[in-house]
Amino acid sequence: MITLGPVLDKDKLTDIYKEKGFPINENSGCVLAKCGEEIIGYSLYDLDESKMVVFKISPENDLALADGILRSTLHIAAERSIMDAFCQGEEIEKLCEKLMFFKCKQSKSLEIEKLFQSCCGCN
After folding, report:
1. Strand-pair category, 109-110 with 52-58
2. CA distances from 107 to 54, 71, 77, 81 (A)
3. Residue 37, by phi and psi: left (phi above 0), alpha (psi -120 to 50) or beta?
4. 49: closest CA among 75, 83, 16, 23?
5. Alpha carbon 21 to its chain's center
6. pLDDT in single tens digits along all 123 residues of the chain
7. I need a labelling partner for 74 at 20 to 30 A (CA). Which of 38, 47, 93, 122 fits?
8. How far is CA 82 from CA 19, 21, 75, 90, 109, in A?
9. Helix axes 63-79 and 90-98, enclosed angle (nearest 10)
10. What distance in Å separates the CA atoms of residue 8 and residue 69, rounded to the nearest whole number?
11. Residue 70 in contact with residue 64, Cβ under 8 Å?
């Protein structure tokens, strides 16, 4: 069974960011997708009191898994009543376009409202 959830342990979060080669700050977060104990995917993001910025989702080639990881990531913002989300970086922009998650492609804003819709849009 696949489970998705945020990394709550700060030391583990720091280790993940170092392993993936991304800088970490006080707003950094990560969602892990696991099958048993095996990590099969993840997202990296920043979340402050007004917005979320997603900058990495892996894997990119498994659209169904990537969709689930993105939805789980955006859910963290929605739980905090933060409905402004953006993506940053060429790879994540391409993925969000494939998954049809853009609210506005020009501003790179994501449609959190898709959390409440089916994931069938990515074809």
Report:
1. unpaired
2. 13, 19, 18, 20
3. alpha
4. 83
5. 17
6. 899 999 999 999 999 999 999 999 999 999 999 999 999 999 999 999 999 999 999 999 999 999 999 999 999 999 999 999 999 999 999 999 999 999 988 999 999 988 877 655 545
7. 38
8. 28, 27, 9, 24, 13
9. 100
10. 16
11. no
Tokens matching residue 89: 């970086």
Amino acid making up residue 103: K
SS3 content of the chain, % helix, strand, coil (to 5): 35, 30, 35
Q: Residue 107, SS3?
A: coil
Cross-strand bridge partners of residue 42: 32, 58
Q: What tokens were used for 55?
A: 């900058």
User: What's the length of the chain?
Assistant: 123
- Cα–Cα dist 103/21, whole Å: 29
